[in-house]
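forwarding from the other thread:

> can someone predict this with zinc ion?

sure thing
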Amino acid sequence: MAAHQRGAFSLGLDIGGTKTHGLVLDPADRVLAEVVHPTRRGPDGIRATALEVAGCLADGLGIQPAAFSSVGIGIPGIVDHTNGLVETAVNLDIERTDLAELLADGFTVPVRVENDVKATALGAVVILGTRPRDLCHVNLGTGMSTAAVAGGRLIRGDRNGAGELGHFAIDPAGERCGCGQRGCLETFVGGRHLTARLAGLGLDLAGLGTAVGPVATAERDRLVGALATGLTLVVISYDSAAVTLGGGVLRTADWLLPAVRQTLTERAASSSFLAGLRVADRLIVLPGDVPVAAIGAAVVGRKKGLHARHDLVRSQS
Ligand SMILES: [Zn+2]
């Protein structure tokens, strides 16, 4: 392969608890190849899975893995992006693993690693194009986590802790959260807490939208109200032009977002401050059939992150 083609293949791997989504982007962020394999757990399993997915993608493109111009990985858990160290990723059975080092001999370029929600925020900027110059992604999965991009860069904060809004406590007398506090947003809107709570009441998340009776109504109000509060907090915190949403809770409860929009609209009607925030207008549900997290992982791999064109809106404004 000619040397000038070497910049053409950005590999992105989104390593999840059950499956690993791999793809290759070209310099214009088009997906050249894409595969999904089951994830094997533990450090050895993840290494094997990552190399297998990379090999499969390379074969499909008729290239060697050495031809990948960059390699990026998104993975759940606490990740030190500066050195590729994954502190904990409970669902993957790994603890304090230097993932970049573990995969180093499989590639000829450095492997860059990032938390999967942060990677998804970068992917969301790519799929939405240049429209949102600033964007915050909210993931409603087993828990609630957020990641914000401003001017094409992730907002990390001093200790990489920016965006842990799921652990913002809104009810001091609420349920105990895994973080040790009570009444965190996550205990209201996170899938793990919701599923357990609703099952204990004889309800389920998908059916809650149409369930009748005072208990169902109270649970619906509790969830919708807390999510509306959480999204308002996101907008107050970051003032992002777009707030993207993803995760299993929204896929399961297709009734939820319309209800949240309605609540946000009602709250805005009685507060000029809230009306000015236009929270409902900023919400964008990411399409379920686009591999946003893996696209973001490919962006993580590039040293410069998002291409300059994603910063153009800011410099022109
Ligand atoms: Zn918490």
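Residues 167, 177, 179, 181, 184, 186 surround zinc ion (CB under 6 Å). thats all i got for now
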